[in-house]
Each structure stands twice: as C-alpha cells, then as structure tokens.
Amino acid sequence: MAKRVIVRFRINPKRAEIFKNCGVPVQNRDEQKIIEKHKAEAKKLGDNPHHYKRTDATGALRPDSGVSVFQESGINPEFADLSYIHENLLEHGYHLGSASLLRKDGDHMFFLFLTYEKEVRPDSLPNLFLKGADFLKEMKNVYARIYQHVFIYTNPDESVTVNPSHVSEEEPRFIVKFEKNEKEKLAISWAKISRN
C-alpha cells in the first residue's frame, strides 16, 4: 500500500489565487536539489533517470526515479476523467494531508499539490480549512476537468504521483481510479469509455 499519493495539477495564476485565498500556502523548493535527488535515486536502483524522457513545462529533459504505471503496461489514457480519484482515496483510508502551491522560476503557471496520506498529523492542515467549503469546491472543479494526458508513477519512497496535463474540451475516453487489488494493495485502474 502506498504511504501517500500526490496529485499534482498545473493551474493558471487566477485559479492559484483562489486557492491562496482558501489558505493554501505557496511552497519554495530548490529545484536543483530535487533534480539531483531523482538522478541519485534512479542510479541507486540501476535505472536510467531519463528512461521516460520526461520534460518540464519549458521542454527541458527532467530526471525521474519513479516507474510509469501506464508506459510500462503500454496504456496511454488520453482524455482522462480523474473525478473519482479524491473519493476513491478517501474510501481506501487516505486523508488529504496537505495542499500547497508551487511556482517554478520562468513559468507563469502554478502547480497545485494535493497529498493524501494513510496517517495524518493533527497539525498538518493548519490553515487549509479556514475556508474549507471554498477549498473543497475549487478542488472538485480541478478534478472535474478532462485531461489530455495523465502520468502516474510509483516512486522509491513508496509514494504514488499522479500528474495530469493539458486540460481539454474533448469528451473523456478513459476513467482513472484507485482500487484495492486482491492483495489489499492500492492499485490504479483505468477503463476505456465506449461510445455507442
């Protein structure tokens, strides 16, 4: 079972401002330190840190130490509906442990990080629910959109990362969910939507 699940949405500055007003903090992090960490983790596991040719918003190649759930299985869930993920994780005993925003240098967009954990410290959400109803409404709005691509990775630290990208007006072709498999482990499932 994953210790935590991190869902990372790329959002525009207007939506980021709404989340800030709901009490979601803006984090600062050393991007070079993250890059070096991912390189070191991949090398320790004997993996090529550029195996999946992951890029950032500027198109620069980024190292990664996770294993792509979909690329390893040959599935590419384009135009995915992620609206079930929040409820699925709550059903399986996860709690929204933190929410934060990040804006990388040279990028006008923000990232919204929603981190779900099996165990939540009482102090982990100090300001988030000051305006809880507004936060939940905005979070559901972000989940309710259709994303052209979704990348899901299992990581060396026993976390799972969900990275949707490119909001689309297309009809959904896939539904992505979290379920428990026969070994009671959290599993990612997807179903192709058939149109008659």
Q: What descriptors fit this protein?
A:
single chain, 196 residues, alpha+beta, 9-stranded mixed sheet, 5 helices, 9 strands
Helix content: 10-25%
Order of helices and strands: EHHEHEHEEHEEEE
Number of helices, counting only DSSP H or I runs of 4 residues or more: 5
Helix/strand structural class: alpha+beta
Biggest beta sheet attributes: 9 strands, mixed
What spatial form do the alpha-carbon principal axes imply? globular
Spans of at least 5 consecutive residues with low confidence:
none
* Distance N to C terminus: 37 Å
Number of structurally distinct domains? 1
* β-strand number: 9
Binned strand content: 25-35%
Average pLDDT number: 78
- Rg (CA only): 17 Å
Précis, in short:
With 196 residues, the protein is of the alpha+beta class. It has one domain (4-192). 24% of the residues lie in helices and 31% in strands.
Walkthrough of the structure:
- The protein is α+β, with helices and mostly antiparallel strands and 196 residues long.
- The chain has one domain (4-192).
- 24% of the residues lie in helices and 31% in strands.
- It contains five helices and nine strands, in the order βααβαβαββαββββ.
- A hairpin with a 4-residue loop joins β6 and β7.
- The mean pLDDT is 78.
Write the layout of secondary structure elements.
Layout: E1 4-11, H1 13-21, H2 31-44, E2 67-68, H3 69-73, E3 80-81, H4 85-91, E4 95-102, E5 110-117, H5 132-143, E6 146-154, E7 159-168, E8 174-180, E9 186-192
Parallel strand pairs: 1-7, 3-8
Antiparallel strand pairs: 1-5, 2-6, 3-6, 4-5, 6-7, 8-9
